[in-house]
Design goal:
Layout (H helix, E strand, L loop, with lengths): L2 H17 L6 E3 L7 E2 L5 E11 L11 H18 L3 E11 L5 H14 L4 E9 L5 E11 L14 E5 L4 H9 L8 H12 L5 H9 L5 E4 L4 H12 L2 E5 L7 H9 L5 H6 L6 E5 L4 H11 L3 E8 L4 E5 L2 E2 L18
Parallel strand pairs: 4-5, 9-12
Antiparallel strand pairs: 1-2, 3-6, 4-6, 7-10, 7-11, 8-10, 9-11, 12-13
The structure holds adenosine-5'-diphosphate (ADP) and magnesium ion.
Adenosine-5'-diphosphate binds next to α1, β4 and β5.
Length: 337
């Protein structure tokens, strides 16, 4: 059955029944002219939105609809996590060609909901698209007033931490696009899953804010150096990074070895890992280490902020220069402010 057979309202009914009844603090969800949220006056409201266009951000024939739904929600949830906030409700606007199968949209919605358990899908818009899918997602979250983690809040002399490995998603993309191959099935499945179903660092973000451990964080959507560059530029600091401390998954190491490549190529420049970069002042380090151990969260220090602007990389204490053939020129401007 195609969506043209059931029409816009038939499709919205399907979405509404999958989203389930909204509950407090969402007072009104799907079905009215607008959604209504009860807001605690002690909280700040944190909002993020992202748009995905078929053919530019994803290829429908290479991505199962459930993964596409999962990822389109997850990337927004990651933005909420990097602010240290808690996601509350989401909005989903879809542009779909009339020939789209209803089952594809159902799978998409199920993946979308799976990415954000407890986040209420509260509305959106559904329109017809002349060619290809358009997906626009908005997530609204909350955080205690005045405490969100900001890109411009790093100070010189803080330790730079990374929560979650980097490079897996870019390696997964290299696999999917057929540029490289995996040495075994499990490795391929692992890397593709990292690309298609990124797991936002919700718990880490929340802990950083609630325990006053950090005031500055960003999620790795464009690549470690690129996103660290955003912190440096906004905070007016520089950074020294020891590349051997950057966490790499065993699967990425093996994939790189098999393809005769340096895993740092994906770890430093590859995007879409949705790991969390954050900075911590020396007096908060012990508390952070205690909490990481208690909670079983794998975050590691990878460098330090400094007054001297620019990002400097070292490997075993020696300067590490990015090889030209890694093709990083497009982002050089950012990490070297
Ligand atoms: P209006 O014409 O007032 O904008 P619509 O007919 O577009 O209302 O939508 C009806 C209800 O369905 C609204 O509550 C809207 O938020 C919701 N809705 C429409 N499309 C979607 C979607 N893709 N996902 C979730 N909710 C949706
Ligand atoms: Mg509408």
């Amino acid at each position: 059955m195609k969506i043209s057979d059931i029409g816009e309202f038939g499709l919205i009914d399907i979405i509404e029944s999958r989203a389930g009844r909204s509950s407090y603090p969402v007072l009104i969800g799907i079905g009215d002219d607008a959604s209504v949220l009860d807001v605690d006056p002690r909280d700040d409201v944190v909002t993020t939105t992202d748009m995905l266009v078929e053919g530019i951000h994803f290829l429908l024939d290479k991505t199962p609809p459930a993964d596409l739904g999962f990822k389109s929600h997850a990337v927004n949830l990651s933005d909420i996590a990097s602010m240290g906030a808690i996601p509350v409700q989401s909005f989903l606007s879809l542009g779909l060609p009339p020939g789209t199968e209803v089952s594809q949209v159902e799978e998409f919605i199920d993946g979308f909901l799976e990415a954000g358990p407890g986040v209420q899908l509260s509305g959106g818009d559904t329109v017809s698209s002349p060619s290809g899918w358009l997906i626009s997602v908005t997530v609204i979250g909350k955080a205690p007033s005045g405490k969100v983690l900001r890109r411009d809040a790093a100070r010189p002399g803080e330790t730079i931490w990374l929560c979650g490995p980097v490079g897996d998603s870019a390696a997964g993309l290299a696999l999917l696009s057929g540029q490289m191959s995996a040495s075994d099935e499990n490795q391929a499945r692992f890397l593709v899953e990292k690309h298609n179903r990124p797991r936002p660092q919700m718990r880490m973000g929340r802990i950083l804010l609630q325990s006053d451990i950090s005031r500055c964080a960003i999620d790795v959507s464009d690549g470690l150096l690129q996103d660290l560059g955003h912190i440096c530029r906004r905070s007016d600091v520089g950074a020294d990074i020891a590349v051997e401390d950057v966490p790499l998954s065993p699967q990425l190491r093996e994939f790189a070895r098999f393809n005769g490549a340096d895993p740092l190529r994906w770890a430093l420049g590859g995007g879409e890992d949705y790991s969390l970069i954050f900075t911590v002042s020396p007096e908060r380090e012990d508390l952070l280490r205690r909490i990481l151990e208690q909670e079983g969260i794998g975050a590691v220090p990878v460098g330090r902020t400094s007054e001297e602007r620019g990002i400097r990389l070292t490997q075993g204490g020696q300067p590490f220069k990015l090889p030209e053939h890694w093709g990083y020129n497009h982002f050089r401007k950012d990490p070297h402010p």
